[in-house]
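forwarding from the other thread:

> can someone predict this with guanosine-5'-triphosphate?

sure thing
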Amino acid sequence: MFLSIKKTIDKLLNIGFEDEFGNDLNQKHVVNFSYMMFCASCLLMLVVFSIRHMPLAAIFSLIGMFIGLVGLRYNYIGHFSRAQLLMPVLKISQVSILSLFYFGTDSGFHWFFVSVIAYSFVVFRADQRFSKYWIVCISIVLFFVCELLGTRGVYLTSFEQRAVIIFVFLGLSFNFAIVINLVMSRLKSVNSHLRTLAERDELTGLSNRRKVLADAVNIFADAVINRESCVFSIVDLDHFKKINDTFGHEAGDLVLAKVSAIMASVIRPQDEIGRYGGEEFIVIMPSTSLQEAEVVMEHMRQSVEDLLIETEHGIVIPVTISVGLASIAPSVSRYEEILAQADKGLYTAKRNGRNRLSVQTDYQD
Ligand SMILES: Nc1nc2c(ncn2[C@@H]2O[C@H](COP(=O)(O)OP(=O)(O)OP(=O)(O)O)[C@@H](O)[C@H]2O)c(=O)[nH]1
């Protein structure tokens, strides 16, 4: 149930926004949330004033709610700056009027100025310092005005005033809980997006060099600790320069993307693949013997050879790969040694005519 409430709140806060990673998205969510809270409070006051037969105050609440909806709409249709600025103006007016003239300052209703200050710090960017500090200053001054004037609630009994204090406490807690939650979950999603960007190769969608080498370190360490076999393989597209020269760089990119996709689809779930650089890739196969690795890589070689890559002019580009393989050995203490060995295997495969595998076993070379 808690999850479905959270999902509904998330959906509400996301209305009007794509799941993007723009700078302002977090602020937009907080602005959305603030308007929703503001409209809900206006609705509540409308009910209270109607029950208490206070038509003028009820009309004010209605107008407040209408302006709140206008602000919400500004946010949805992209007038973010207007929405951003209108909110604190509304909130400051609402808190001042209700605190001074209705609830009385004994109710502590003016503590809601704290939420205005928090809003300013979350929503305004560094280049909007001027607005931010003005709003903060006005909120602080009005808070002290309320505190010093000490007006009594005109229409409230002392019991009702206590109820307002509890309402202020709960309202502020809810406000802070949601705003902090919004900021934190936004930070988390931006973080994971940045990590994906930092670890992915843009063209092929595979792990980039940094990520695949980090995987290599971890898999190598696990293999050493568990005394298991593991195989590193380096894959290189054959005559790729010729492909670029004949069909153009764009066609070359297309070939890289297609070959990467097919290679990623034929490796096993436990294997890791990444772009080492240019038209070179690394495949790491943990807990795998050389014979098993050969089967996987031969399947890959065949799948690439069978691949039909057509240019936009309908010309089929023939593409093959050469593969060097090397397995962990008792004498090896660094993963770079297996990689260097696999690279020797690749060199042999190229020298022997390309479109083939070459297993390198002799670390003495
Ligand atoms: N289109 C495209 N080309 C790239 C990219 N990265 C590297 N290249 C090209 O890949 C080519 C690699 O050429 P070489 O290293 O001579 O290798 P090769 O032509 O594949 O020859 P062999 O490896 O000996 O079969 C160079 O022309 C690079 O410009 C890329 O991201 N996109």
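The chain has two domains: 2-198, 209-360. thats all i got for now
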